[in-house]
Amino acid sequence: MQKGSTVQLVSVRVITNDVTRLVEFYEQVTGLDARRPAEQFAELVGPSCTLAIGSAETMALFSAGADVPESNRTAILEFLVEDVDREHERLMSLAVAPEVVQEPTTMPWGNRSLLFRDPDGNLVNFFTPLTDEARARLAR
């Protein structure tokens, strides 16, 4: 890539031992339908980024042993939502209701945030910008 080129984040991939379970969870949580080009791989395509879900066996195609499924404790998958409190109520009524880590809370940087875990233990944040400054940070 030449200097001055733009790098664009287009996808985040989560590696799992159970693609179907994770796909079903994210379909219910996001309302997106997953594309399944292969049994071991799925994509949930959103307006700004794609969440890819791959089986642990797909990592052998890249570098065997490079992944450790279901062990993430640092990255957070973040989704912009219209109303965090309404989403919290909706999520708690789902058959796949997630483990809530933090109830809806207004953060010092102006976002209202709901933090929960997916079935593999990955952190997920649903957030709504409340202040003009928080909304401005999302403007591209």
From TrEMBL:
<dbReference type="Pfam" id="PF00903">
    <property type="entry name" value="Glyoxalase"/>
</dbReference>
<feature type="domain" description="VOC">
    <location>
        <begin position="8"/>
        <end position="129"/>
    </location>
</feature>
<dbReference type="InterPro" id="IPR037523">
    <property type="entry name" value="VOC_core"/>
</dbReference>
<dbReference type="InterPro" id="IPR004360">
    <property type="entry name" value="Glyas_Fos-R_dOase_dom"/>
</dbReference>
<dbReference type="InterPro" id="IPR029068">
    <property type="entry name" value="Glyas_Bleomycin-R_OHBP_Dase"/>
</dbReference>
<protein>
    <submittedName>
        <fullName>Glyoxalase superfamily protein PhnB</fullName>
    </submittedName>
</protein>
